[in-house]
Design goal:
By secondary structure, the chain is α/β, with parallel strands linked by helices. The protein has 2 domains: 208 residues, Rossmann fold (3-Layer(aba) Sandwich); 205 residues, Rossmann fold. It has 14 helices and 13 strands. The strands form 2 sheets. It has an 8-stranded mixed sheet, with helices on both faces. The chain has a 5-stranded parallel sheet with strand order 10-9-11-12-13, covered by helices on one side. Helix 8 crosses helix 10. It is elongated. The termini are far apart.
């Protein structure tokens, strides 16, 4: 029996051990899926605090209940560690680490490369290595393949390499890890067969593509599609605002067309770890081929402009009421990047808070999902979430609705706020103290 057959047999009879490197919004749900299917899972993360919490059965992600983590630990199937040597115990190693941009908006692959280099001493024959982090086409073969070969492995024969991009959508009630189709591309045909075997036991549908590069491009296309269409509707919002037209009314009317139209909704900017970042991975890589991705970069410019547009609308609204932004008390409603989650990555709300503070406003926030403002790489506020009461709302000169969490009592807020700047279309119709942005 060769290495491919041996690995696939271990996966099919559930004796394979699954190693997941990076235990965040992608890695944790994937871990739970393999535990649900009866696999031993070794979770590896460089954050000692996260590892300790997980081994105590505690979750640090709001939409993942601690009881799920506790059940995984108590079953004896899951253990978290900071010890990369545990990788030798695993048959599959799935990398779920961040791929941010640096200050020049260029790909920062340090998490991927450093993680892979840490694994090199522990790679062995029979391993399958899968990268799930979003990145530019060519990363898997340009960065991971040489490291596997450095470990003395004949990839496609001794060991296997695939790229299978994550597709998590936190707090989406219609989909879960198991039901979201999984793209998979292999370095060789044997790698692809091993990758399909790895994911088919945990995901309902695995979609094979011809190469790791095709899989990498697929993920970028998905997110660029969203970024470009959001850029379009954000530009339409600016035009509609100048014409005194409610863009949300227009979108909802257009959405009644049963073909040829997909509704996208504007907001105060782009947030999350994917949509604001991933398009720039392709624009950067395209330069290597002498190409300038003007369409993608224009959408990025429009989306990046949105926080300034919102602040300008707030400034004008205050001015109309005889107030200046400087010295005004502003309450930002919602600082997570999307509704009903606690994820702060690339949140436009934080850009709004920073911009308002620079202009002299006194800024506070309310977010039931983020009780204390977390430590962030570029922004920090020593603040806790303000409880929403008639008294607290009326104490602010303006309320800026940035993230439309379901938990907010919108009628009560409208009743007691002196001014609301609404970036999410939660307040349709005309009201003297509500301004669309």
């Amino acid at each position: 029996m060769n290495q491919e057959q041996s690995l696939i047999k271990k996966i099919s009879d559930r004796t394979a051990v699954i190693g997941i490197v990076g235990l965040g919004y992608v890695g944790l749900p994937l871990m739970l899926r393999y535990v649900e299917e009866g696999y031993q899972v070794r979770g590896i993360d460089i954050d000692q605090d996260k590892v300790e919490k997980l081994n105590q059965g505690l979750s640090y992600i709001e939409h993942i209940d601690s009881s799920c983590i506790a059940d995984a630990v108590e079953s004896g199937l899951f253990e978290a560690t900071t010890d990369f040597s545990k990788a030798t115990e695993a048959d599959a190693l799935i990398l779920c680490v961040p791929t941010p941009l640096n200050k020049h908006r260029e790909p920062d692959l340090s998490f991927v490369v450093n993680t892979a280099e840490s694994l090199v001493p522990y790679l062995r024959k029979g391993h399958i290595l899968s990268l799930e982090s979003t990145t530019y086409p060519g990363t898997t073969e340009e960065e991971l393949l040489p490291l596997m070969e450095k470990a003395g492995l004949d990839v496609g024969k001794d060991a296997f390499l695939v790229y299978s991009p994550e597709r998590e959508d936190p707090a989406n009630p219609n989909f879960e890890t198991r039901t979201i189709p999984k793209i998979c591309g292999g370095h060789t045909s044997a790698c692809l067969r091993a990758g399909i075997a790895l994911y088919s036991v945990a995901i309902d549908r695995v979609v094979p593509v011809s190469s790791t590069r095709a899989a990498e491009m697929t993920k970028l296309l998905e997110n660029i599609h969203r970024a470009v269409n959001i850029g379009l509707v954000n530009e339409m919002k600016v035009v509609a605002d100048r014409m005194d037209i409610d863009i949300h009314e227009v979108i909802n009317a257009a959405a009644t067309k049963p073909f040829g139209f997909t509704p996208y909704y504007p907001g105060p900017g782009l947030g999350g770890h994917c949509i604001p970042i991933d398009p720039f991975y392709l624009t950067w890589k395209a330069r290597e081929y002498g190409l300038h991705t003007r369409f993608i970069e224009l959408a990025g410019e429009i989306n990046a402009y949105m926080p300034r547009f919102v602040i300008d609308k707030l400034v004008d609204a205050l001015n109309d009421r005889g107030k200046t932004l400087k010295g005004s008390k502003i309450l930002v409603l919602g600082i997570a990047y999307k509704k009903n989650v606690d994820d702060m990555r690339e949140s436009p709300s934080v850009q709004l808070m920073s911009g308002l503070t620079r202009k002299g406003a006194v800024v506070e926030y309310s977010d039931p999902h983020v009780p204390v403002f977390p430590d962030m790489r570029e922004h920090h506020f020593d603040l806790s979430s303000v409880a929403l009461t008639p008294e607290s709302i009326s104490s602010f000169d303006g309320v800026l609705l940035a993230t439309d969490h379901t938990a907010f009592d919108y009628p009560m807020i409208a009743q007691h706020a002196h001014l609301i700047v609404d970036t999410r279309g939660k307040y349709p119709g005309a009201a003297d103290h509500i301004v669309r942005a």
